[in-house]
Amino acid sequence: MAATAPGGAPARLDIDGPSVGRDLAALVLTIVELLRQLMERQAVRRVEAGELTDEQVERVGTTLMLLERRMEELRDQFGLTAADLNLDLGPLGSLLPRD
Asked: If you ran DSSP here, which 8-state letter would residue 85 be given?
């Protein structure tokens, strides 16, 4: 049984090295994926509003495609799936929209 600190919290945690690295990677990639999706939505809104030149549309599209490809590579590297990055926020639902 683990010792407890004042207030009933565990005095120490049992941390498994490989799972900590994978979990940290999942957290970081979740944040990056959230930002990527927000940027993508903003770009679509700006394109639909006619705020971007054809050159800017092309550049944004290429950048978003490259970022998505890199995210896939990083997920593969850490053995994660897209579903692994979608945190369950309980009654609020999931963090990322389900595509």
From this structure: G
- CA 97, 63, 66: angle at the middle one, nearest 5? 75
> pLDDT of 5-42, one tens digit each?
556 655 555 566 667 888 888 889 999 988 988 999 99
Integer CA distances (angstroms), 42 to 5, 49, 53, 60, 65, in order: 46, 11, 15, 11, 15
Per the CB < 8 A criterion, the answer to whether 19 and 25 are in contact is no
Q: What are phi and psi of 94, to 5 degrees?
A: -90, 155
Number of C-beta neighbours around residue 85 at 10 A: 21
